Amino acid sequence: MSGVGEKVSGTTKTPADFLKSIRGRPVVVKLNSGVDYRGASLSRTLTCLDGYMNIAMEQTEEYVNGQLKNKYGDAFIRGNNVLYISTVNMTVADGA
Amino acid sequence: MSGEEEATVREPLDLIRLSLDERIYVKLRSDRELRGKLHAFDQHLNMILGDVEETITTVEIDDETYEEIVRTTKRTIEFLFVRGDGVILVSPPLRTAA
Prior knowledge:
Chain B: Belongs to the snRNP Sm proteins family. The complex is a heterodimer. Chain A is mainly β. Chain A is 7% helix and 42% strand. Chain A has one helix spanning 15-21; strands spanning 27-31, 36-39, 46-49, 55-64, 67-77, 82-87. In chain A, strand 3 (46-49) and strand 4 form a beta hairpin. By secondary structure, chain B is mainly beta. Chain B has 1 helix and 5 strands. Chain B has a 5-stranded antiparallel sheet with strand order 4-3-2-1-5, with no helix packed on it. The radius of gyration of chain B is 18 Å and the shape is elongated. The model of chain B is unreliable at 1-7 (pLDDT under 50). Classes of the chains: A mainly beta, B mainly beta. The A-B interface holds A 31, 33, 47-50, 54-56, 60, 70-78, 80-81 and B 9-13, 15-16, 25, 29, 45, 84-85, 87-92, 94-95, 97. Strand 5 (67-77) of chain A pairs antiparallel with strand 5 of chain B, so a sheet runs across the interface.
């Protein structure tokens, strides 16, 4: 499996490395149900996660079909529901 | 390997522990939500909740008008064991933030 994931920025090579590298970064978490969760602003980030993909995030916004549905002060998401975790590039925030 | 590594990396479950004996909001599968006091939980997110209000949301589509009718049903339960595999999300109760 060498070579897989080398497109990813810099040092991450395995999923485990990715999970170590994203703590404290802004992410988008998409669930199996299609709902996705983002930090409410670029400074709002993933607090921590574990090997089961359980996730803790601050100031999370919930989007269903692209529409903002809910906001949470802190959110713990059970890992089995997670479809993916994606990092977000820190560019100028597009107006929401 | 890398320079700094905390001796005890905090897991999401450690942070849920901070909510013990506090009221929390739980989102479950099947469009259900719970609000109650967290008495206990485990790594599966099995939980014991007290003084719980459950909200079930259903969306009906009218055959003729195709309008969506959103209904919520609520019930209160004094003491509840929640099986962890149904849990999607846990959060402190939604507050009116400043």
